[in-house]
Specification:
- The protein folds into six domains: about 90 residues, Rossmann fold (3-Layer(aba) Sandwich), CATH 3.40.50.2300; about 90 residues, 3-Layer(aba) Sandwich (Rossmann fold); about 90 residues, PAS domain (Beta-Lactamase, 2-Layer Sandwich); about 140 residues, Rossmann fold (3-Layer(aba) Sandwich); about 90 residues, Orthogonal Bundle (Helicase, Ruva Protein, domain 3); about 40 residues, Arc Repressor Mutant, subunit A (Orthogonal Bundle), CATH 1.10.10.
- It has about 575 residues and is an alpha/beta fold.
- The strands form five sheets. Strands 14-16-17-18-15-19 form a six-stranded mixed beta sheet. A five-stranded antiparallel beta sheet has the order 10-9-13-12-11, covered by helices on one side. A four-stranded parallel beta sheet has the order 2-1-3-4, with helices on both faces.
- It has 22 helices and 21 strands.
- Helix 4 crosses helix 5.
- It starts with a strand and ends with a helix.
């Protein structure tokens, strides 16, 4: 008989490795869920009720589960290999770095960093409640990168510090499987019954659910929804984060609908309760208008080692009082990310951020939702000259208190001058990646770490000669092209280090694609337009010597002169 085992992974990237390891242990009937800290408690309790024999989790999540259930809970430890991998990944990050966690993490981290002489500080905590204040203190002291367990990553996210999760590898997972086999046992427990609080009966709000501080449901009332639009685990996670600074948030339901959510905190008889109120205003109407609405709760990371990008960010930070902006930069330079940065810096994460195409904005009849604080308008290039003039008028009509309007534009053609040179619109020039080569290395490091954390790729570092290739490339597709190339590279790399050969192969494929695109553009249009491009190309190659250009084209000099004047 197989041991019915539930693995609760505290972070999604762990599931990829668990799926690979589960086949090695046939004695375990393994089921995998993703949940962290308080979010994992209802998952664990439900598993116990369904007859699971053992639960495997990690770190603080496993400790919380152990207190909530009576069946065995196995902790996946952090091995020396795990510490070595994360320290190698962090070594190339610029700025001050620290490991924050319990002694089971920090002791191994300190030993390895001392042995390898890596410049990373180590801070040990005794209780989970110490992590938040410690991370806040480290941010004030100038630390730019924090490594640790999931609870440390939550604190880093809350205080807008870049973080790297210390993930468990194969060795630690296999050890946990072995422990699950050796200590298997089964018991059942009864769930606590709760009483409805009389003071909440007076609440007349519809579409509401009330949770106690420990995440238990004490009251709910639905009129526009069949049940709570979000899983209770998501609501308890919001309670854990204790961030009630936003007046309104946008959340996405399982049916891919965006709805508004407000949270109220109440103290009743010395007990804390959280009221979650939902509204269906941001649903199909918004989608039909081409809006994408979201809450920007963390300051976007803008890498700016280069002088050109430093000037760009400095200009933005000095101009935050402006309410109308135009971001002028080629495709792929990160205009939307910068618009989110402006939103966060201006409104400190409060209010809603929305992006919309210019055409959809012109078609809106009902106005802009009052909870939207920043509106980013993209795809201006598809508008006709008449529509551009109309857009300029619409942008000026959008002036209202607390609304920031940001336009994204990829060129300075004359048709856009009514926007670019309007006295109320502040224009920010976004440099191309070619103009900010000093940012290629930290961008590449960031993207490798991002993919490692998000999709569980194995690569954590790039060889120096491979990085040199990236720094020498011209990047016509800018940052978006670099991210796309590295995404393909980390998926193609089975080891931990990306080498020169793989990057060279990816760059050659990029160049082939660029050549095909350039050829198609060169031969597009009418015969007269193609002829003009051919003449201009030959003139450039002959340094604008008309005699030599005419000889190459097989025409006399006067004919060439006439065609140039057309």
């Amino acid at each position: 008989m197989k041991i019915k085992t539930l693995i609760i992974a505290p972070y999604p990237a762990m599931t990829h490795l668990l799926e690979e390891c589960r086949h090695e242990y046939k004695e375990l009937d393994i089921h995998i869920e993703v949940a962290n800290l308080q979010e994992a408690l209802p998952v664990a309790k439900a598993a116990e009720d369904r007859g699971f024999d053992v639960i495997i989790s990690r770190g603080g999540t496993s400790k919380l589960i152990e207190e909530a259930v009576t069946i065995p809970v196995i902790d996946i430890h952090v091995s020396g290999y795990d510490m070595l991998r994360v320290l190698t990944l962090a070594n190339d990050f610029p700025g001050k770095k620290a490991i924050v966690g319990f002694s089971n993490i920090t002791l191994g981290g300190k030993a390895i960093k001392d042995l390898l002489e890596i410049q990373i500080d180590v801070f040990t905590v005794e209780e989970a409640k110490e992590v938040d204040s410690l991370v806040e203190k480290l941010k004030i002291e100038g630390y730019e990168l924090i490594m640790g367990d999931v609870i440390t990553m939550d604190a880093a996210l809350k205080h807008n510090v870049e973080g790297i999760l210390i993930q468990s590898g194969r060795e630690a997972i296999f050890e946990a499987f072995q422990k699950a086999k050796s200590i298997y046992r089964l018991h059942r427990s009864q769930q606590l019954q709760i009483n409805l609080l009389h003071s909440l009966i007076e609440e007349t709000e519809s579409n509401m659910i009330v949770l106690s501080q420990d995440g238990r449901t004490v009251y709910q009332n639905w009129t526009d929804f069949k049940s709570c639009p979000l899983p209770i685990t998501k609501l308890t996670q919001q309670i854990e984060e204790s961030d009630l600074s936003n007046e309104v948030n946008i959340i996405e339901t399982g049916e891919k609908q965006q709805i508004k959510q407000r949270i109220k905190k109440k103290e009743i008889n010395n007990q804390t309760y959280y009221l979650f109120l939902f509204s269906g205003i941001i649903t199909q109407q918004v989608h039909q208008q081409g809006f994408h609405v979201e809450t920007i709760s963390q300051q976007p990371m803008l890498i700016s080692n280069s002088q050109s990008m430093k000037r760009c960010v400095s200009m933005i930070d000095r101009s935050l009082k402006s309410s109308q902006w135009l971001l002028l930069g080629a495709e792929g330079t990160g205009k939307q990310l910068i618009s989110q940065y402006i939103h966060y810096r201006k409104h400190t994460g409060n209010g809603l951020y929305a992006n919309v195409t210019a055409q959809n904005l012109l078609a809106i009849q009902d106005g802009i939702d009052p909870d939207i604080c920043t509106l980013y308008i993209n795809d201006v290039e598809v508008l006709s000259m008449k529509e551009v003039k109309k857009l300029s008028s619409v942008v000026q009509k959008l002036k209202r208190e607390n609304l920031t309007v940001i336009l994204g534009l990829s060129n300075e053609e004359e048709v856009y001058h009514s926007l670019i040179y309007h006295e109320d619109i502040l224009t920010i020039h976004i440099p191309s990646l070619k103009a900010r080569r000093e940012d290629v290395r930290p961008l590449a490091t960031y993207f490798i770490a991002f993919f490692h954390g998000q999709i569980g790729t194995s690569a954590i570092k790039m060889k120096e000669e491979a990085m040199d290739l990236l720094e020498q490339y011209s990047w016509p597709g800018n940052v978006a092209q670099l991210k796309s190339l590295l995404h393909a590279a980390v998926l193609g790399e089975r080891g931990y280090v990306i080498g020169k050969r793989l990057i060279q192969q990816q760059l050659e494929e990029e160049k082939d694609a660029e050549t095909i695109t350039a050829d198609k553009e060169f031969l597009s249009g009418t015969l007269e337009e193609i002829e003009k491009r051919v003449i201009e190309h030959i003139m450039q190659e002959e340094n604008y010597n008309q005699t030599r250009a005419a000889d190459r084209l097989g025409i006399n000099r006067s004919t060439l002169w006439r065609k140039l004047k057309q």
